[in-house]
């Protein structure tokens, strides 16, 4: 079963898909004892300063990423939010979503050098994921609160690490091998997961 990824905004999402995104975010917020507000999610999905991609399994949202440019550094992409539905975790969806997003961005803009994000210091699983793809806890003070780490990674290093992760997973031939993620519209092809696959861009 293949997943697909689409560029979305608040107005392009159906009511049901927006609800699914909110449920994914609510799950993470509850785990981290954070307060979730649907209005905040609607703002990030509707504000032109942010870009959002959503992963679908048929018509169901199973993950999303929201990012903007130049939050900490002039040449960084900052992940505002990233979430995967609870029963879809452990399939490398988040890793590949980050990789596909960065790959597409740097193809268009070679000046992008870093990926940055904030993560709660108690969110050990997320920290482990980010460190696995080559990010490090930064000396930059987080703008989002004293309980957050600012993490930074070089885009070139992250893309290389993700490629290595996917190759290892493919060699192991396990059931947790990453699913193919496609973007809709267009017909460009790109190297990812060590093989050619269609990467369709909205």
Structural class: alpha+beta
For the residues shown, what is the average pLDDT?
85
Question: What Rg do the Cα atoms give?
Answer: 16 Å
Q: Which H/E pattern describes the elements?
A: EHHEEEHEHEEHEEE
Largest sheet: 8 strands, mixed
CATH C-level = Alpha Beta
Question: Between the first and last Cα atoms, what is the distance in angstroms?
Answer: 21 Å
Number of strands: 10
**CATH architectural group:** 3-Layer(aba) Sandwich
Shape: globular
Give the DSSP E fraction (strand runs of 2 or more residues): 25-35%
Strand order of the largest sheet: 6-7-5-4-3-2-1-8
Quick one: CATH superfamily?
Gcn5-related N-acetyltransferase (GNAT)
Unreliable stretches covering 5 or more consecutive residues: 185-202
Number of domains: 1
CATH third-tier fold name: Aminopeptidase
Number of helices: 5
Helix content: 25-40%
């Amino acid at each position: 079963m293949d997943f697909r990824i689409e560029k979305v905004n608040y107005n392009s999402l159906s009511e049901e898909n927006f609800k699914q995104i909110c449920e994914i975010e609510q799950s993470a917020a509850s785990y981290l004892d954070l307060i979730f507000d649907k209005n905040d999610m609607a703002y990030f999905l509707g504000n032109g300063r942010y870009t959002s991609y959503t992963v679908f399994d048929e018509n169901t949202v199973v993950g999303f990423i929201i990012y903007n440019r130049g939050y900490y550094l002039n040449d960084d992409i900052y992940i505002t939010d990233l979430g995967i539905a609870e029963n879809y975790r452990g399939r490398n969806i988040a890793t590949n979503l980050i990789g596909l997003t960065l790959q597409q961005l740097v193809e268009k803009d070679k000046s992008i050098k870093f990926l940055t994000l904030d993560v709660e210091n108690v969110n050990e699983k997320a920290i482990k994921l980010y460190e696995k793809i080559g990010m490090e806890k930064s000396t930059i003070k987080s703008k989002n609160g004293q309980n957050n780490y600012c993490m930074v990674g070089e885009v070139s290093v992250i893309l290389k690490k993700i490629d290595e992760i996917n190759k290892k997973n493919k060699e192991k031939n396990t059931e947790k091998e990453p699913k193919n993620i496609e973007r809709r519209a267009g017909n460009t092809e790109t190297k990812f997961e060590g093989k050619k696959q269609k990467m369709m861009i909205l």
